[in-house]
Amino acid sequence: MKAAELSTYLISGAVTAHPKDRRVVTESRTVSEGIQDGLDAQRLGFHRAFLSERYDIKHADVLLSGIAARTSSIRLATGTIDPQTRQVWNVAAFGATMHACYGPRLTICLGLGDDQIFKRMGVKKATYREMVDYATMYRSLWRGESVSYQGQSGSFDNFSFSETYDGPAPELWIGSFANPKGAETVAAAYDGVLLPPVFTPRATEAAVRRIREACERIDRDPASVRICQSVITAPDLGDEEFRQLAHGRATSYFVYPGYGENLARVNGWDEQVILKVRNHPIFTGLSKVADMAMHRHQMMDAAALIPDEWMLDACAFGTAEECVDNLERFVEAGADEITTYGSTPAQNAGLIAAWKKRMSQ
Fold first, then answer.
1. How far is CA 222 from its chain centroid?
2. What is the pLDDT of residues 232-284, one digit of tens each?
3. Half-sphere exposure of 344 (CA within 13 A, CB side)
4. pLDDT at res. 122
5. Which of 253, 309, 303, 312 is nearest to 280 (CA)?
6. Regarding predicted confidence, which is higher, 167 or 19?
7. Residue 187 — very low, low, confident or very high, per pLDDT cuts 50/70/90?
8. Which H, E and C letters describe the chain, residue by residue?
9. pLDDT score of 114
10. What digits encode the pLDDT tens for the residues 100-137?
């Protein structure tokens, strides 16, 4: 097996401000626990720690800065942040400030975002063309150049930084399924791609192939794009927690129209199952998107409709060694990096030890 880095995803999904009663460790995680998880990730030797955000008490800038201030070597990355909610100079300034304060170890990962949430904000979901424009302007600002733009990402004329960071810019990644248009966008403008959880190895392999072919069409070295696959891991965890992490998380994806169908298509799953999950009675009458109204452990009645074989193919469970065996399938499919997802870094202590041992053989 080719060498690959193992990273970790911190406090994935919904979080709380204060500890609540919970049956398992990953239920109702707090934001302060997310910072401690970042410290654990460095101590255990993870390559990188990803942290996504939500429009409430989970702001990536704040949490990543808190982790960076108390660590020295682990690489840090946003999970996916939406360009429609941040002007390009805001993101570039965030990266410059992080690097100036804590050294050049940040990766910024963008995503297209969700139509339903954006409609409530009065903005439109970004197009792939706009994602390329955004990346181009981001790099221009880092070079000290002036940028002008008028479009979905804002309107400004001859804007530039008055002060710049004398060092490398944070790599710019994109969270994507890497379907044809997504793969072309990765090849055209991005340093890496974060593939979402609940991909099967077959889906990973197909995404890797599309990215490489897109790079070759524009004479870009495919090896210059780093491909990271998110995989839900549950090493030596009980059945209840595994099901919350796997089936519960998948449910939170399936309830999004379009996203759930896309997962079904890339994985070769029956879309009718997706619709049955989405139309479960527990979601009836919600005033907002289910994933914003409920934590995954509250969705388990609907999650019971998901076939176990789907989750066993797309996730890593069992002993630490068995988890490594499962993760190897994604490396063989072409991923350069794997990030654990759902479970905490501390819960993956045995897994990363087994991973490092396997990589050294």
1. 21
2. 999 999 999 999 999 999 999 999 889 999 999 999 999 999 999 999 999 99
3. 20
4. 63
5. 303
6. 167
7. very high
8. CCCCEEEEECCCCCCECCCCCCCCCCCCCEHHHHHHHHHHHHHHCCCEEEECCECCCECHHHHHHHHHHCCCCCEEEECCECHHHCCHHHHHHHHHHHHHHHCCCEEEEECCCCHHHHHHHCCCCCCHHHHHHHHHHHHHHHCCCCEEEEECCEEEEEECCCCCCCCCCCEEEEECCCCHHHHHHHHHHCCEEEECCCCCHHHHHHHHHHHHHHHHHCCCCHHHCEEEEEEEEEECCCHHHHHHHHHHHHHHHHCCCCHHHHHHHHHCCCHHHHHHHHCCHHHCCCCCCHHHHCCHHHCHHHHCCCCHHHHHHHCEEECHHHHHHHHHHHHHCCCCEEEEECCCCHHHHHHHHHHHHHHHC
9. 65
10. 999 999 999 999 876 666 566 666 778 899 999 999 99
Write out the two tokens for 24: 């398992």
Kindly report whether the global pTM for this prediction surpasses the value 0.90: yes
The tokens 């530039």 sit on which residue?
160
